[in-house]
Design brief:
Strand order of the largest sheet: 2-3-4-1-6-5
Distance between the termini: 66 Å
Structural class: alpha+beta
Order of helices and strands: EHEEEHEE
Largest sheet: 6 strands, antiparallel
Oligomer: single chain
Length: about 130
Amino acid sequence: MSLAVVGADHPNKRGPARRFELALCLQGEEVDLVPEPKNPVDEHAIAVFSARGVQLGYLTAERAPWIGGMLKNGREIAAVFQAQASFGAWIRVAFDGEKPFLPSIAAAPPPPEPVGPRVERDFDWGC
């Protein structure tokens, strides 16, 4: 399952900026989900940290209570970086000992073959 990570434009209290850290993240790199029950804005907030321990942002307010509830109940959740996005990033999660997998990106189809016979002409360039 893919989850959005938002808040990339907010500054971190210390360390690199979130956008800078997002630029360093590699597809498939592990990320950590950390509940913040004492967050003054949202008691259900789930912070997302890179493999280097730098905060990337937060799970959306719609998904945070659900993921937080699973973490609180001891459910194992593994997460990896999927991709950067204009709002922050996408991460991939898997549950109960499964490993998250990245969806395959379909290759662009080859260009269509030209229709009709190919005509080659000899030109006299006057040389």
